[in-house]
Each structure stands twice: as structure tokens, then as C-alpha cells.
Design brief:
This protein is an alpha/beta fold. Among the domains are: 6-163, Rossmann fold (3-Layer(aba) Sandwich), CATH 3.40.50.10140; 199-321, Orthogonal Bundle (Arc Repressor Mutant, subunit A). It is built from 13 helices and ten strands. A five-stranded parallel β-sheet has the order 2-1-3-4-5, sandwiched between helices. Helix 1 (17-29) crosses helix 5 (141-158) and helix 6 runs antiparallel to helix 7. The longest helix is centred in the middle third of the chain and has 44 residues, at 173-216. The termini are far apart. 21% of the residues are buried.
């Protein structure tokens, strides 16, 4: 019962005609419904009412921007372009906004650029507004197709909207809840059967591959400080380190902004400076980290109104437990090896003397490859026990301290 989304596509018309068509095709390929108002005149009152209604009914709003700001409709105030007016309406209707903005490095015809300074300034300001939402930059048509597909796939997975299903296929809430519970129970039973039915080696192999993937991949992380003007102090972090840091925090769940603050405070390379409170690390980077961990099924996404909440998954808990167990086993082995003598020393260490009064211990010493040690003789013919036992010498002889060839 796949969910479909209505996705409103907003852009200038003449300069982005081919790009709009490509974006519509991508939305179709992803199984959703593009909403384009190409034939509606926004300057007409009825036209604007139609556009407003369609924006409010859509699940997502995508703004496609190049080097034109667009026309300023006189009937709507004449102070903003039609594309920015549509954007403002999406914000007002609480429709999630995504943006595809042309890169400053892209090659673009001068005929498709605004020549008036006023329009160019307004366009740059509009682009900055769009960059406060999830966005991606593109260089050419091929780059646009790839980045649009990635942006839509990621955001639709991370921030799922209401969407729609055919009325004939819609399940009652009770049925949906029961189905979700049964699916969770089924997944748990499958995992247990995989372990008990001889799948332990496969599980361990999969765990090892996951740990190797986390250890082999890294991501760049920058920091924004109070009073700063840009991102600074970029560092490279391995995903394994990030996973280890995040696991204790994700047991109760954390939002994307909370994860950004946590990683910013823990990994800040310049402790003499204070990071800013809101997103001290880039939100796009944090979302990429969590999406990659989600793709490995180590974390799970929970929708909580307008916030993105992340929690550690059962598989993530299991992986972390196995990882910590291996670390503790290695630590215990290293400590045991440090306390025990070296192999060469152990082989050459003499066996302790075995008293002759205990033949069983003499046999054990012989079995171990050692020789029994005889008690030293004294002048009176009696023998001093090597380690306890009754002294067989006369009483007068016992009064003197015996001497041995080895000294006292």
C-alpha cells in the first residue's frame, strides 16, 4: 500500500523549461505526483486562488532556482516575484520546502540572467532564504537530475508527510496498529531464529562487515562559534567514532538539533571558543550522518510533529554490545598477559622443593618433569625435613643450627 505525495514545483518559466520537465519526470519516477501551474496566470485573481489552494493541498514544495528572480506581479503588490510569493504561501500553509539552487560555478547563458541590479539583489536574498531549508546545488542538467533524486528520496524518508492512498486500500486505524505490532514481533522472531538456527556465524559476519564499514568511512565536520561569521575548524570523523559517541545519547531519543549541539560540544577542537547554541555543526552534515546510520539499520527515525527524533535501534544496541564485549575481552586478555611471566621465564623457573613425607606430591613433580628434592643430611645421620615433618635427629643435635653446603 505505497503512499503517494503531491509535490508542487515552483520556478521561473522560460529559462528553466527543460529543467522543470526533468524534475516532473523524476517525481513521476519516484512514484509521486508533480503539481505544476504552467497554464495558470498568477496575475489573475482566480489564478492566484487556484495556486494557493494547490500549494496548501500539496505534501511538499520544491523551488527550482537559476539566475532569474522572475516577474513582479502588480496585482500582488509588485514587490516580490511569483516564485517568492509561492514560497511564502508554502511557508504560511506549513508545507515542507525543498530547494534546488544553481551553483555559482555553473555555466549559464547571459540571456537567461537578470541584468537589473535590483532583481539580482532580490534573487540573492531569496536564495539565502531557501538555504534555510533542505537544499542541493546543481551544475548542469545531469547534475540536477541526480541531486534532485537524492534530495527528494532523503527528505521524503526523513520527514514523511501525510500523503495519500486510494480510499479502497486505506486500512482502519485498529488494523494498521495491529499490523505494525505483528510486523515488529515477526522481525524479532526472525532474528531469534537466525541466531538459534545456526545463523550465529552469519550474524557475526554481518556485524563484522558493519563495523568495518563504520571504521573505513569518515565525514567532514565543521563548527560555528559565537561571534563567528562562517564555518571553521573542519575535522575528519570516522563513523565508528560517531556511532560510539551517539549510542548512549540515543537510548532515549534525540532531535537533529540536539545531536548537532552534542557533537559540537564533544568534538570542538578549539576549547577556548564557545560554539553557538543553534546548530553549531551543519544540519545537512548531521542529517547525512543519521541517514547513513539509518541505512545500516543502526538507528531509527521517529516522527514527533515538526521535529526529527532519532533513537538507537535493536540492531544498533546489539552491534554496540558485541563491540563493547570484544573491547572488554581484549582488555582482560592484555591485563592477564601483563601479570603472567614471559614464556621463556616460565619454562626455566625451577619447581619448588617437594617434601619427602608427601609421595603424592613427589609423583606430581615427576610427572611435571621436575626432580624431587631430598632433605639435606646432618652430622648425626638424621635428616631435616625440607618443608615440615618430624625431625629425626637426636635432641642434642637438634639444639644446634644445621649448616648446608649452600650456606645458611
Amino acid at each position: 500500500m505505497p503512499k503517494k505525495y503531491h509535490i508542487f514545483i515552483s520556478s521561473t518559466m522560460d529559462d528553466l523549461k527543460n529543467e522543470r520537465q526533468a524534475l516532473c519526470r523524476i517525481v513521476f519516477d519516484l512514484g509521486h505526483i508533480p503539481v505544476c501551474m504552467d497554464s495558470v496566470d498568477i496575475t489573475e485573481k482566480t489564478g492566484w486562488q487556484v495556486i494557493k489552494k494547490n500549494i496548501a493541498e500539496c505534501d511538499y514544495f520544491v523551488s527550482l532556482i537559476a539566475h532569474r528572480y522572475g516577474k513582479l506581479p502588480e496585482g500582488l503588490g509588485g514587490r516580490a516575484s511569483s516564485t517568492e510569493i509561492e514560497y511564502a504561501q508554502a511557508i504560511k500553509a506549513h508545507v515542507p520546502v525543498l530547494a534546488l539552487i544553481i551553483s555559482g560555478k555553473a555555466r549559464w547563458k547571459d540571456a537567461k540572467k537578470d541584468k537589473e541590479r535590483k532583481l539580482a539583489v532580490a534573487l540573492n536574498e531569496f536564495k539565502e532564504k531557501l538555504k534555510s531549508h533542505p537544499y542541493s546545488e546543481w551544475l548542469n542538467m545531469q547534475d540536477l537530475k541526480q541531486n534532485a533524486r537524492e534530495l527528494l528520496s532523503r527528505e521524503l524518508a526523513l520527514s514523511p508527510a501525510g500523503g495519500w492512498v486510494p480510499g479502497s486500500e486505506r486500512a482502519a486505524p485498529e488494523t494498521a496498529n495491529a499490523l505494525g505490532r505483528l510486523m515488529a514481533e515477526n522481525e524479532e522472531l526472525r532474528r531469534q531464529l537466525a541466531v538459534r538456527g545456526g545463523g550465529r556465524s552469519r550474524l557475526q559476519k554481518r556485524t563484522r562487515r558493519t563495523l568495518e564499514a563504520l571504521a573505513a568511512n569518515q565525514i567532514s565536520l565543521s563548527f560555528f562559534y559565537n561571534g563567528g561569521e562562517n564555518w571553521e575548524n573542519t575535522i575528519e570523523c570516522r563513523f565508528l567514532k560517531l556511532f560510539k559517541l551517539l549510542v548512549p545519547e540515543l537510548y532515549l531519543g534525540k532531535s537533529t538539533s540536539e545531536i548537532s549541539r552534542f557533537l559540537g560540544s564533544i568534538l570542538n577542537p578549539d576549547l577556548s571558543r564557545v560554539i553557538r547554541k543553534d546548530y553549531p555543526t551543519p544540519s545537512n552534515t548531521i542529517k547525512k550522518i543519521m541517514t547513513d546510520l539509518h541505512s545500516l539499520r543502526l538507528v531509527q527515525y521517529i516522527s514527533n510533529g515538526s521535529e526529527e527524533i532519532w533513537q538507537i535501534s535493536d540492531r544498533g544496541k546489539e552491534l554496540y554490545s558485541l563491540y563493547r564485549l570484544r573491547q572488554l575481552d581484549r582488555k582482560a586478555g592484555a591485563e592477564a598477559a601483563a601479570r603472567s611471566p614471559a614464556p621463556a621465564e616460565a619454562a626455566s623457573a625451577p619447581l619448588p622443593p617437594v617434601p619427602p613425607d608427601y609421595p603424592a606430591l613427589q609423583d606430581e613433580a615427576a610427572d611435571a618433569g621436575g626432580d624431587s628434592v631430598e632433605a639435606p643430611a646432618n652430622k648425626s645421620g638424621g635428616r631435616i625435613p625440607a618443608d615440615g615433618g618430624k625431625d629425626s635427629r637426636p635432641k642434642a643435635a637438634r639444639a644446634k643450627k644445621p649448616r648446608t653446603s649452600g650456606g645458611e
